[in-house]
Structures are given as structure tokens and as C-alpha cells.
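Technical annex B. To support the medicinal chemistry partners, we prepared a structural model of the target in complex with copper (II) ion, based solely on the information shown next.
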Amino acid sequence: MDGVPLAFDTMCYATAAGHTYSVSRLEYYLSEIVLIGVDGTPDGTIHGPCYVNAGGTTSFDLGALSGGAYSGATLLLGLPPGMNVTGGLPNTLENVNMAWPDPMGGGYHFIKFEGHFLEDASPNGFAIHVGNNSYLAHAELGQAFTLDGASGTLALRFNLNELFRTPHTYDLSSGNYSMGNMVLMGQLRDNAVDAFTIEYRPL
Ligand SMILES: [Cu+2]
């Protein structure tokens, strides 16, 4: 949250449109994490998918990555089309709970981000749910980093406030329920492009 670790259920965050909000749930998939070499060429892909629950699962073993200098990374917030079909992921509880209804196209939710926001001083619920291949966000992470070939942590930070700004100023008053709304899901897809940063932390 603009550099501060997320705390659940505290009405202390602000959207670019001026709403104060809290977070009660954050689940999403990351996939196709591509590390970009210094000459700009893709230099290794972590296919995933990585299921993230901000209230629980936030770490993954990425296996061995090539040491060297990188200029950044790209990733998908969600699932590539080949996986985003009903039954396309293993039948774990997490995946089943992320299912996107067949009548709405099937596959999986890319993200569930829920909480409350203040509207005229009274709290209202919001549920930001995004799915469908058309609304898959291709995030660009422009931070250079160097892998030293030893063990360490590749930290991917998701700034939730970015979902509410640039290029679209997302208005929770009209956008408190995004699921199936093409305009809202399109805004969230576009806003997510710059929502992630990457950093390498040696052990
Ligand atoms: Cu939903």
C-alpha cells in the first residue's frame, strides 16, 4: 500500500478518487513471470501459476534461476488462456474457490480483492473480481536487479493502490462490484500494468 505493508480490516487506505477503504480479502494468481535480460530479451520464464492469498500463502519456491543482471520482468495477473478454462487447474480448495462461473465464460477469477469503503461517512462493501481472458493484465516491472547465483528472495510487490489509478481513476462508488462488468474489469486490467515491482534480496 504505497510502501506500507497491508493490514487487514483497517479503514486507513485511500483511492485516487478519494475514497477511504479497508481490505478484508486478497487472493490472486500470478503466472508467466518473465525475467528480462539487460539487453531486453526474455531470459527465463516461471510459468506458475502461483496462487497468492495475502492472508496466508505469499511465498513460492521458484527453483534455480540463472545468475546475472536483469533489467526487469513481466508477469500476468491471472492465468494464461490455456489454463483459464474450467477444470484447467488441479482441484485444490483454493482453485475451486477461485472458479469463474461457466455462464460468464468459465475458467478462474484472476483476482478477488474485497473490503469496505466510506461513502458519505458510512461503510459500504466492495468486491473487485476480475476474470476472462480479455481482462488479463500484463504487468511490467521496470526495476533492474542482479541474481547472484546463490539463494535469495525475489520479492514481487503488488501495490493495491495502483489498481485505483493510472490510467483510469477507479471510482468505488460506481465500481463496488466489478465481476462481469466489462468497463470496470477493463479499467482494472489497465491499472494493473504498473502495480507490481520486483527486487532481489540475497539471503
Ligand atoms: Cu466473483
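Notes passed to the chemistry partners:
The chain has one domain: 13-202.
The chain has two helices and eleven strands.
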